Structure to design on (619 residues):
């Protein structure tokens, strides 16, 4: 009997450990579920900056009254990318009676970031009472502080509250874990498990990320609507003649499910930052909005229609990338399931397409290089479509076209076809980008005071050593922020903070898969490694330089506006080049699928991290 028990445990040790680990994951999620029940009301769209003059009083009316106790009120400020001094006094009133007062150092305020004002203890707001914030900058000198306001003149704020979290999320997550464990135990193909997790995660994020819950999503919606119903190129509107368009009235009332667009009236909408993007960036969103418009005129549904189209295309491209990649599939999978990647995927942001296309590009290139696939006319056409589109989404990623030189010449019918193909893709992409830059340059505006693009460019050319020092200083000063905003610890408008073990788990998973990728890889060439690392380095420099020139005040020692999510498209290139370096240096050979299956536990780690992130953004 004892021998039989030991024999059973010996033969099924892996499965038993998997079940135990699954139970542990469920317990971790259940224990911290109550803490992750903090929610917020929708933030008002920021449209008008209200400059805060010393000792002047600005009021913010609190109109959103949740039924649960409030623990904080978050207000959106701007600092014009400058460091401020002094103390800001903020008071919360209930029917002209002071409930609480805060004195905050303005040096801690971030630019275009919500500042939390925490209550001493949770307080239930009364529906029959009137609440407002009184904001005073008491500094006697000159500060650069602004309160973002909506069109009606009220400040942009969120009410943060906490409610007893229902067990629905725990139940859904439990079913999710049981299905994954069942798939693993019954030997379902790993690729199908990835498809399942990717689709479920995308659906859950789409259901729970609020409209305009992603940075600048309102401007992306307006630009998408413009392309769907008016023109591919923006007009100049308003007294300042900024990029935008005169379109149907009511487009900004997407939060109200009952509001329909008014085709009899028009409004001027300004979106200068989105006007800079090429129409290709918003093509799937525009198609989704157009198709939805045939069935409904409700702004809420149009917004969601654009989101669905963008998410479906990005999801399809990710699934295709997973199918094509010859090795390092789990690396791509982890990157795809980063909470920040999933948030962008289900939004109207062009970054969704950038992320998925960049991973499909490297997957297809490596598939041709490491399999028996020949480069036919169809293959060249598909590669040209991917490469051209990727380059047009954001010009800095035109550098990724260097991956063409990884393609073996002997895979082409004729060697000269390789040079013709490469030349056509690169030249047409460069030419199209030059033409679009000539068109979009008319929409360039000074987003931050003190920005002098010509002076910045001149300083980079005359003193490149100093510019390198600025890049290093930025990287070291903001390293933690880059990791947090690049994995999903900072979601929403960088104001939804999730548990720190999200990025710890995901980075551990990504590091494990990078260092312990034992897939079959033949003929690792130094050329391939050099090209991929060059793509990463050049793109990173272009990201820093573009923001240094267009967003950072002249003479600043730190590049402003850099976020970790900007590096997501490069993660796969860096990780796979590390796999190749590791394989080439230590001459490691592939190991059996049975041994590789021990990494199955990582699927549950990813699931726990995603679940934790979701509970923070649920409405």
């Amino acid at each position: 009997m004892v021998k039989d028990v030991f024999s059973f445990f010996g033969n099924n040790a892996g499965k038993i450990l998997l079940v135990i680990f699954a139970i542990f994951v469920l317990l971790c999620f259940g224990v911290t579920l109550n803490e992750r029940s903090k929610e917020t009301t929708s933030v008002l769209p920021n449209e008008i900056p209200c400059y805060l003059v010393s000792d002047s009083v600005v009021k913010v009316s609190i109109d959103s009254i949740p039924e649960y106790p409030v623990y904080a009120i978050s207000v959106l400020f701007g600092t014009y990318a400058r460091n401020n001094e002094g103390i800001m006094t903020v008071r919360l009133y209930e029917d002209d009676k002071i409930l609480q007062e805060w004195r905050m150092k303005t040096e801690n305020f971030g630019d275009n970031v919500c500042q939390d004002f925490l209550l001493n203890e949770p307080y239930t707001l009364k529906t029959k009472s009137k609440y407002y914030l009184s904001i005073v900058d008491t500094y006697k000198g000159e500060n650069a502080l602004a309160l973002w306001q909506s069109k009606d003149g009220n400040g942009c704020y969120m009410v943060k509250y906490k409610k007893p979290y229902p067990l629905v999320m725990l139940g859904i997550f439990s079913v999710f874990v049981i299905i994954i464990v069942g798939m693993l135990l019954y030997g379902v193909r790993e690729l199908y498990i990835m498809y399942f997790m990717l689709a479920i995660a995308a659906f859950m994020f789409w259901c729970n990320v609020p409209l305009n819950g992603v940075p600048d999503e309102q401007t992306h919606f307006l630009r998408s609507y413009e392309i769907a119903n008016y023109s591919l190129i923006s007009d100049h509107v308003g007294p300042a003649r900024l990029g935008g368009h005169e379109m149907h009235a009511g487009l900004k009332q997407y939060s109200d499910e009952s509001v329909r667009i008014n085709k009899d009236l028009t409004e001027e909408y300004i979106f200068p930052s989105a006007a800079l993007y090429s129409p290709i960036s918003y093509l799937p969103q525009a198609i989704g909005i157009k198709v939805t418009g045939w069935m409904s005129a409700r702004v809420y549904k149009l917004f969601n229609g654009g989101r669905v189209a963008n998410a479906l295309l990005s999801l399809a491209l990710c699934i295709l990338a997973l199918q094509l990649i010859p090795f390092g599939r789990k690396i791509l999978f982890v990157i795809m399931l980063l909470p920040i990647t999933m948030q962008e995927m289900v939004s109207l942001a062009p970054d969704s397409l950038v992320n998925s296309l960049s991973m499909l590009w490297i997957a297809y290139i490596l598939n041709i290089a490491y399999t028996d696939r020949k480069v036919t006319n169809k293959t060249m056409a598909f590669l040209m479509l991917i490469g051209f589109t990727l380059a047009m989404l954001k010009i800095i990623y035109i550098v990724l076209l260097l991956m063409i030189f990884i393609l073996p010449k002997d895979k082409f019918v004729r060697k000269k076809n390789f040079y013709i193909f490469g030349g056509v893709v690169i030249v047409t992409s460069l030419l199209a980008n030059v033409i679009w830059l000539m068109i979009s340059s008319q929409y360039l505006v000074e987003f931050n005071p003190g920005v002098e693009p010509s002076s910045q460019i001149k300083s980079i050319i005359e003193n490149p050593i100093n510019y390198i020092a600025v890049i290093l200083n930025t990287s070291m000063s903001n390293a933690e922020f880059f990791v947090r905003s690049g994995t999903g610890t900072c979601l929403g408008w960088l104001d939804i903070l999730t548990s720190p073990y999200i990025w710890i788990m995901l980075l551990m998973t990504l590091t494990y898969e990078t260092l312990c990728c034992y897939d079959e890889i033949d003929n690792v060439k130094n050329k391939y490694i050099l090209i991929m690392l060059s793509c990463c380095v050049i793109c990173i420099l272009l990201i820093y330089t573009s923001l240094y020139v267009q967003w950072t005040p002249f003479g600043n020692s730190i590049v402003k506006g850099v976020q970790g999510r900007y590096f997501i498209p490069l993660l796969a290139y860096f990780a796979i080049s590390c796999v190749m370096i590791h394989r080439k240096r230590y001459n490691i050979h592939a190991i059996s699928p049975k041994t590789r299956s021990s990494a199955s536990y990582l699927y549950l780690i990813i699931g726990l991290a995603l679940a934790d992130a979701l509970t923070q953004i649920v409405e």
In short: The chain has a mean pLDDT of 80. The first strand starts at residue 38 and ends at 40. The first helix runs from residue 2 to 11.
